[in-house]
Amino acid sequence: MFTLFADLITYRWLSLNPGAHLTEALHFFIEDTTKIFFLLTVIIFFVSIVRSFFTPERTRRFLRNKRLIIGHILAAALGVVTPFCSCSACPLFIGFVESGIPLGVTFSFLISSPMVNEVALVLLFGLFGWKVAALYLFSGLAVAIVAGIVIGRLNMERYVADYVWQIRMGEAAVPEMTWHDRFEYAKGYVKDILRRIWLYVLGGIAVGAFVHGYVPENFLLRYAGPGNPFAVPIAVLIGVPLYSNAAGVIPVVQALMSKGLPLGTTLAFMMAVTALSFPEAMILSQVLKKELLAVFFGITAVAIIIVGYLFNFVMG
What confidence tens digit (pLDDT) does each residue in 28-87 have? Predict the structure, then answer.
């Protein structure tokens, strides 16, 4: 649907030449803008409805009865079965924090959701076999769990934006609340969140569109090809400005591996594209202060680099 809408504007209405840098960049921008804002609206609305039934106190009581490591595992597993891109996972992250779920546990979800999903697993299994698919699944879960635990141990709650702690959405959950009240509340919350982040979303997508349209396809192979000992961190650095979900980047992964790029380097690039992106950073900058945002990106990037080198060693 979103691709067809972008096709209609770029090729029919504007009559731009397919394959041109500007056309590809504009097509990417239109498609991702409509897709992300649609997903943001739907997800924020749905989460708001669900959360209207649960007070922060009830959520905290539930979590106090669970071991913290179990919370990280459950959050990472939830991310696997919720195949959101890094941008559309952010509203759920915000909702978790506001509900009183520990910060490290919320990060386990935020990392796992875009990095690992069942669509990518099926595609990897079909293209490369069950071993590669299993390595992708377990390494993605490991990155999400370990990164979440480390962030949780750093006690960085003070670096979450003040307004997040001030929103007490769950306190609206009272027995007298009607469905009309819940819908009105959810509509108001959608407007509030989009008002805060829309400009940052557009800016991040614009960066991704420029990279998509103007960066040569062999750019990664040129600088992170076989034989380069720094190929994995270079692949991660190249992947961060890009933006895609795990399923969308699979064809790129297949093309890179067919040209001789090692599996670990390729998966590190894929994980960086899906779990770390400029649009995500711009959205999260409205929720996280720069210190926590830097820690999140740094820890996740280091974990992905370690996984990349490990895969290259094991498969090499």
Answer: 888 878 877 887 687 678 767 766 665 555 555 554 445 568 888 888 887 776 655 555
Rounded to whole angstroms, the Cα distance separating 254 from 215 reads 18
| Residue 227 CB-density burial (10 A; 0-12 exposed, 13-18 middle, 19+ buried) | exposed
Residue 165 structure tokens: 């702690």
Q: How many CB atoms lie within 10 A of CB 237?
A: 17
**Tokens 């992250």 map to which residue?**
93
More confident residue, 116 or 268: 268
Place of tokens 């595992």: 73
Among all chains, which residue has been given the structure tokens 């800016």?
A: 203
Structural tokens at position 279: 């649009």
- pLDDT for res 287: 77
Alpha carbon of residue 202 to chain centroid: 16
Reduce the DSSP state of residue 288 to 3 states and report it.
strand
Q: Enter the tokens of residue 85.
A: 């891109």
- Reported as type and span, the H/E element at residue 94 is helix 90-98
Residue 233 clears pLDDT 90, i.e. is over it = yes
Cα-Cα-Cα-Cα torsion 261, 262, 267, 268, nearest 10 degrees, comes to: -90
Q: Give whole-number Cα distances, 223 to 133, 219, 231, in Å.
A: 26, 7, 7
Contact present, 161 and 286 (Cβ < 8 Å) = yes
Interaxial angle between packed helices 246-258 and 118-128, expressed in degrees from 0 to 180 and rounded to the nearest 10: 20
pLDDT digits (tens, 9 = 90+) for 181-217: 888 888 887 887 777 667 766 776 776 677 667 766 6
DSSP type of residue 177: -
